[in-house]
Amino acid sequence: MLTLSVFAAGLSGGFYFDDEWNVLRNSALQVEGLGIEQLWAAAMSGTAGPLGRPLATLTFAINHLFFGFDPYYFKLTNLVIHLACGAAVYAVSFSLSRQLYFGVEKYRKLFAALVALLWLLHPLNLTPVLYVVQRMTSLSALFCLLGMLAYIQARLSSTDQQLRSRLLLIVTYFICFPLGLLSKENAALLPVYCLLIELIFFRFRLGDGTLSKPLISLHIVLVLVPGLIILAYLLVSPEWVMGGYVRRDFTMLERLLTQPRILVFYLSQLILPLNSELALFHDDIRVSTGLFSPITTFFSILLIIGLLGTAFLQLKKRPLIAFSIMFYFCAHLLESSVLALELMHEHRNYLASFPILLCFAYYLVSLMEYKLKQGVLLSLMMLLFLAVSTTIRAALWGNPALQAWQEMVDHPNSARATYEIGKRYAIYANGLTESEQKTEAMEQAAEYFRKSSILRESYTDGLFGLLMLEGIEGVKMDAYFNGLLLNRLASGPFNNNNYNYLNAVFQCAEAGQCSYEPSRIARLIEACKLNPGFAGSHQKSLLARYERYKQQ
User: Contact at 8 Å (CB) between 130 and 75?
Assistant: First the structure.
């Protein structure tokens, strides 16, 4: 009930950022019934990640079937999944408590409940609830948690419960693992999490203390062998990773140098979450161009080395500290390594926050065992702080215009936050009849679109915003910014949003909502053709759409 009340104010908010492309503009999600063919087409319509994340996409289609594109019910579904994850966090924490020392036995349940509450109420975990498309993250986390729970229960089975143990391992690797992957690809780390649990808490020992060779073989097959195969493939075919950087305005080396600062920043958000530091957009983060540029790059690397060193030193004496540190960094192995993903997003901490809060809760309960009042008071203060912070943040997310404004206030150098303000003004203007108020709103929209395009050299969203504003409202796009758009399409990193916005331009024109000179569209396409990053299936689809447009 506490979690429901904390997030309630945010359920009335709208769709944000990638929700538009993954949910609202995906016509395959608009199913009219529960027929297998429609549901299959909806599930396979996703474009995020190499697998398309069909399970998460299917749930969006079911949401639409029953409630249309009402964001309230999409977010409510996300909240239910968040609560299910909280229950799984409780169960995993309680199961792991069997491997931890407690002076008072009854405190094990208190410990598990405290972990779950800290995790459920933490403001860093808000985006997988109120940012609709990040259901992909929460579903993936749910199956990872259930997989870990099944693994721990399998290892806690007695020697005369071999059938139960094997069935639970099947649940982990043949049910939870694939379901997690079909939600989001970072569930690929589930075998790594289970290996960590094994290494730190069970150490490949059976109930009688003997070393289990089958368990060692299991983890070699599921973790070591796939890891070596992936590494070998990357060495033989580095273009699989390097090709993704065509869409980015940073290199792989710059990404690897920037991630230590980001990982340390994530930790600071976990330990002391300040709403002014939390945001949907962190595109204003400075890219590290060298070991000492900025100097915090070097100190962040040193801190991470120190933390990992501490984890190895504490493996036997304080296994929970070792587990928390190692799990945290393992949880970021995919999204904070060589893959050409965006630099930073808070939802990447959804599962990674679990071990840190697990450690906090353990030492809070340990304090209660010796100084009950102080331990209880400190725990209540932490829970109250998290609940209030998340309630305030949820209330902001419940009002899209207010949320966009606060994002820009907190991150004035964010091109995306600035663009979102322009978009809100444009939507507002579109709903007004011709008046001075409408003219002023359009001018404000154009001003923020122009500002966003200046804040980041490769950014095109604001330029497309100006183009759409011209097509819909007739606000002429300045020649300078039109040239800027053509130049960035021709020579800048060609990211997915370029395809999204070009398709949006065609859709607007085809629906008769936008009016452009044919030569204007032709120049856009010709600029795209000059870019080596304009390639693949998206390119073919867009060019085919352009041909259909010309024939109208």
Answer: yes
The amino acid occupying position 364 is L
| 3-class DSSP state of 137 | helix
| Residues 71 and 13 sit within 8 Å (Cβ to Cβ) | yes
CA dihedral sign of residues 512, 516, 518, 520 = negative
One-letter amino acid of 288: S
The confidence score (pLDDT) of residue 354 equals 97
Quote the pTM value: 0.93
Give residue 47's pLDDT: 83
3-state SS of 197-220?
HHHHHHCCECCCCCECHHHHHHHH
In whole angstroms, give the CA distance from residue 552 to residue 195: 59
CA distances from 355 to 264, 359, 517 (A): 15, 6, 57
Task: Select from 382, 371, 392 the least CA-distant residue to 114.
Answer: 382
Q: Compute the distance between CA of residue 102 and CA of residue 107 in angstroms, rounded to an integer.
A: 7
Task: Tell me the C-alpha distance between 155 and 431, whole Å.
Answer: 60
Contacts for 353 with CB less than 8 Å, ≥ 6 apart: 119, 122, 124, 125, 270
Query: b/e for 399-427, b at 16 or more Cβ within 10 A?
Result: bbeebbbbbbebbeebbbbbbbbbbbbbe
pLDDT in tens, 328-385: 999 999 999 999 899 999 999 999 999 999 999 999 999 998 888 898 999 999 999 9
Query: What is the per-residue pLDDT for 419?
Result: 94
Residues whose CB falls within 8 Å of the CB of residue 131, separated by 6 or more in sequence, listed in order: 16, 17, 19, 280, 347
> Closest by alpha carbon to 498, among 470, 461, 450?
461
Locate 67 and state its tokens: 């409630």
Residue 415, amino acid: A
The SS3 of residue 290 is: strand
CA angle, corner 90, sides to 85 and 93, nearest 5? Answer: 120
Q: Which residues of the chain carry a pLDDT beneath 70?
A: none
